[in-house]
Amino acid sequence: MKKGMVWKEHKKTVPNRLIVTEGSVTYKETGKSIALNKYDDLEIPLHIIHRPEANEDSLCFLIQV
After folding, report:
1. Residue 16 contacts by C-beta under 8 Å, 6 or more apart in sequence?
2. CA dihedral 41, 26, 5, 2 (to 10 degrees)
3. Which among 44, 6, 37 is positioned nearest to 20, based on CA atoms?
4. Which of 14, 20, 23, 57 is most buried per CB count within 10 Å?
5. Confidence (pTM)
6. Does an H or E element contain 64, and which?
7. Under 8 Å CB-to-CB from 47, ≥6 apart: which residues?
8. Rounded average pLDDT over 7-15
9. How far is Cα 25 from Cα 4, in angstroms, rounded to an integer?
10. How far apart are CA 42 and CA 46, in angstroms?
11. What's the whole-number mean pLDDT along residues 35-39?
């Protein structure tokens, strides 16, 4: 993700984990914002509308678990 990039809002129907391997992103859902930095990971809740935003150039992996 390039700095300033914002994914469109969406929701997951299968369990996923977002892993940041470079840079930093902010995970946003209604009323909640979580900063994720290099080597941080987050289990994304099912059926919740959310979007990640890149705070700087970042490399992330989304893994279905």
Report:
1. 43, 44, 62, 63, 64, 65
2. -50
3. 37
4. 20
5. 0.89
6. strand 59-64
7. 11, 12, 13
8. 94
9. 9
10. 12
11. 98
Mean per-residue pLDDT, 3-25: 96
Going 8 to 52 to 30 to 41, the CA torsion angle's sign is: positive
What is the token pair recorded at 63?
């893994």
- Residue 37, both tokens: 């930095």
What are the DSSP calls for 7-62, one per residue?
A: PPPB--SS-EEEEEEESEEEEEETTEEEEEETT-EEEEPTT--EEEEESSS-EEEE
Confidence of residue 15 (pLDDT cuts 50, 70, 90): very high
